[in-house]
Amino acid sequence: MENSASGFIVIHKPSGMPSAAAVAAVRRATGHACGHMGTLDPLASGVLPVAVGNAARLFPYLLNKEKVYRAVFRFGLGSDTLDAEGTVLRAGLRIPSEGEIAAALPSLTGELLQVPPAYSAKNVNGVRAYALARQGKAPELAPARVFVRSFELLGREGEDSFAFRIVCGGGTYVRSLGRDLAAACGTEAVMTALLRERSGPFTLDGAVLPAGVTPENWRKFLIPPESAFSLPRLDFDGRDAQRLLWGQRLPFAGEDGEYKLFLCGALYGIAAAEGGVLRTKVKLV
Predict the structure, then answer these.
(1) Of the listed 41, 83, 160, 180, which one is catalytic?
(2) Which of 7, 26, 61, 185 is the most buried (most CB within 10 A)?
């Protein structure tokens, strides 16, 4: 049972490159189907985990993992995209003080209802919000429940710009946090830089630029799928392993729940136990 082509490569996406282009570079190098976990806007840089092969089937177990960002917001102007790449709609607005910003940050931590940006990949009646926005239509986006663990002011980056470190759950739009922070200070802001330092278990340590992944070296960057998520482990060999390979269920005396499933010493997938019965839920090979 061979699973050596399945795993994750942590890409350090450069600013200016679409996430899809970074994934395409990995696909060309590996010769395997690939997908990314959590799009980064072209303006943004940093951690972009790319699943190689069947490891993409693990994304539901990873998408809600915590993320860490370093963001820079420029206050006193607003754009249609909420970042520096959009059309400036308003300028010359007031610049809040560090004290005002620090006082507003606690209101933007914890569980929040956040309106996504108009220029986002959210679906609106089957159409991407950004497609509607580009047509001059205002997409009606419902607030989404997000979680922000911390929103820390790091300091001034210039006369009108401030840097922040944000720790948040999946689905959080950092551009929207900048918009809402500025609104709490009675002004507007755009995001001018964004670096994702961590996404779930994946960090910048060991991340590789897309151009650094080649057909000759990609396996040295491949992270085994079992190291990317936390579940208890079950091992089977012999007849029990064969039964699971055939799609059969096994009697199980352990606790109900999900497990990493190893057959004959190799990761096979995820098993689910319920009511004294164990079955294979996700196959990685």
Answers:
(1) 41
(2) 7
